[in-house]
Amino acid sequence: MSAFLTLLKRDLLLQVREGGAVGTALGFYLVVVALMPLGLGPDLNLLSRIAPGVLWIALLLAALLSLPRIFEADDEDGSLEVMATGDLPLELATAAKALAHWISTGIPLALLAPVLGILLNLDLAAYPVLVATMLAGTPAISFLGAVGAALTLRARRGGLLLALLVLPLYIPTLIFGIAAISAATGGPSGFTASFLILVAISLFSLVIGPLAAAAAIRFQTQ
Amino acid sequence: MLLAIENLVVERGARRVVDGLSFTVAAGEALVLVGPNGAGKTTVIRTVAGLIRPVSGSITLTGGDPERDLAAEAHYVGHLNALKPSLTVEENLRFWADYLGPGSPASVDEALAAFALEPLAMIPAGYLSAGQKRRACLARLVATPRPIWLLDEPTVSLDAASVALLAGRIAAHVAAGGLVLAATHIPLGLASERRLELGIAREAAA
Question: What is the CATH number of the domain that holds B147?
Answer without folding.
Answer: 3.40.50.300
